[in-house]
């Protein structure tokens, strides 16, 4: 049996991970009652008794939890943003780079990607790697999430507010904590202009990257962009590139799944493209990604417990 401790299992992401793992016969969950969860000694004991720890905590608490691990055998998956650009941590997006799956499988410390960066990076990184997007190009990303991404406080706010807010833009100071993660793992020179928003939908996400292809010195065709993305994810059971046949996309497109779907829309005459990713902010954007990383690290079927 593989022993797993979810530190922060009472939050939105932690509860979903716990539900997904509770029926797995190969996994034994280390559970703490409410009193024990508030005891530093009991938490430390659980952290050091586990084969794998999944941290679903605020950033500072996640850093503290890592410091409480005193052995060299407990391996950690951090679902917070505390370690996504930190040295010594492997970025937990197995489809992002050639060799990333193997790196995660061997890593003692893995940082779960953010939900917004997952969509952005899936669209942008293969194109940067192929030289279709210049590394110094001024990129922007517009993204809208379901309100469950804001945790219990935002869920309560949206579900009790009368009348409810339909749409809320935020991160207006252009200093959102996801930006360094996007810049580092896309391997681009400039931080992208990030325009996040939340909608009155429980779960789901749309992430869009507009590209003025006419401004590129080497102007790629829409077909070339799509082909590069298809090749990058051709072996993935989770990330899929779909034909741009639809005339509208819904934020709930992948809600309730662990899939990440990519589409390339555009106008060849004007030289403009809209790259769009749809995912579940609690699926591939959070809990699903954590379960996938656990599967990879523990040597299980990579899609065990996932909805693909």
Describe what is shown at a glance.
Helix content is 32%, strand content 22%.
Explain what the structure shows:
The protein is of the alpha/beta class and about 300 residues long. The protein has two domains: about 1-115 and about 285-300, 3-Layer(aba) Sandwich (Rossmann fold); about 115-280, Dihydrodipicolinate Reductase, domain 2, CATH 3.30.360. The chain has ten helices and 13 strands. The strands form two sheets. The chain has a seven-stranded mixed sheet with strand order 8-9-7-10-13-12-11. Strands 2-1-3-4-6-5 form a six-stranded parallel sheet, sandwiched between helices. Helix 4 (about 60-65) links the parallel strand 3 and strand 4 (about 75-80). Helix 1 (about 10-20) crosses helix 10 (about 285-300), helix 6 (about 115-130) runs parallel beside helix 8 and helix 6 (about 115-130) crosses helix 9. The model has no long low-confidence stretch (mean pLDDT about 95).
Q: Quick one: CATH class of the largest domain? A: Alpha Beta
So, CATH architecture of the largest domain? 2-Layer Sandwich
Instruction: Give the DSSP E fraction (strand runs of 2 or more residues).
Output: 15-25%
The CATH superfamily of the largest domain bears the name Dihydrodipicolinate Reductase, domain 2
* Major sheet summary line: 7 strands, mixed
Share of residues in helices: 25-40%
CATH fold-level name of the largest domain: Dihydrodipicolinate Reductase, domain 2
Low-confidence stretches: none
User: Termini distance?
Assistant: 25 Å
Mean of the pLDDT scores? 96
Number of domains: 2
Gross morphology is: globular
Number of helices: 10
Number of strands: 13
Write down the Rg.
19 Å
The assigned structural class equals alpha/beta
């Amino acid at each position: 049996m593989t022993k797993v401790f979810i530190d922060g299992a009472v939050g939105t992401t932690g509860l979903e991970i716990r539900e997904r793992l509770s029926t797995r016969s190969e996994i034994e969950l280390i559970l703490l009652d409410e009193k024990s969860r508030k005891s530093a000694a009991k938490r430390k004991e659980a952290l050091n008794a586990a084969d794998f720890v999944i941290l679903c905590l605020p950033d500072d608490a996640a850093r503290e939890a890592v410091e409480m691990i005193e052995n060299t055998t407990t391996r950690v998956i951090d679902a917070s943003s505390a370690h996504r650009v930190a040295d010594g941590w492997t970025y937990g997006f197995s489809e992002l780079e050639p060799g990333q799956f193997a790196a995660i499988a061997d890593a003692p410390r893995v940082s779960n990607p953010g939900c917004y960066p997952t969509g952005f990076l899936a669209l942008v990184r293969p194109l940067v790697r192929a030289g279709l997007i210049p590394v110094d190009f001024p990129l922007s990303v517009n993204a809208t999430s379901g309100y469950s991404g804001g945790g219990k406080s935002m869920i309560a706010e949206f579900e009790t507010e009368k009348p409810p807010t339909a749409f809320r833009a935020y991160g207006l100071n252009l200093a959102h904590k996801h930006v360094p993660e996007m810049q580092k793992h896309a391997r681009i020179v400039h931080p992208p202009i990030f325009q996040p928003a939340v909608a009155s939908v429980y779960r789901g996400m749309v992430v869009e990257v507009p590209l003025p292809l006419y401004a590129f010195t080497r102007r790629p065709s829409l077909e070339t962009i799509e082909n590069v993305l298809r090749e990058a994810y051709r072996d993935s059971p989770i990330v899929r590139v779909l034909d741009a046949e639809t005339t509208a996309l819904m934020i709930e497109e992948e809600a309730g799944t662990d899939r990440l779907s990519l589409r390339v829309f555009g106008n060849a005459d004007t030289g403009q493209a809209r790259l769009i990713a749809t995912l579940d902010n609690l699926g591939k954007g959070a809990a699903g990604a954590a379960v996938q990383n656990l599967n990879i690290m523990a040597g299980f079927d990579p899609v065990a417990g996932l909805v693909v």
